[in-house]
Amino acid sequence: MTGPATPWPGAEDDTDHSRAGALLGTDGTWRERLESAVGAVDAPDVVFAVSRSGRRILHCGGTAPPPPVPRQDLRYEIGSASKAFTGLLLAQLIQRGLLTGGEPAAACLDPGRRTDADPVTLAHLITHTAALPALPADFYPRALPAWRTNPYGRYPSERVTEAFLCHRPRHRPGTRWHYSNFGVAVLGHAVAAATGTAWEELLGAHVLRPLGLSGTALRAEEAEGAHEAERAQDSKTDAVGHGKDGRTPTLAFDAGGFQAAGAVRATPHDLLTFLEAHLDPAGSPAADALRAVRTPVLRRGPGHRHVHTMAWFRHPTNDGPMYFHSGATLGQQAFLGFRPDTGTALVALCTRRFRARDSFIATAYALLAEE
Question: Of these four, 161, 171, 255, 353, which has the most CB atoms within 10 Å of its CB?
Answer without folding.
Answer: 255
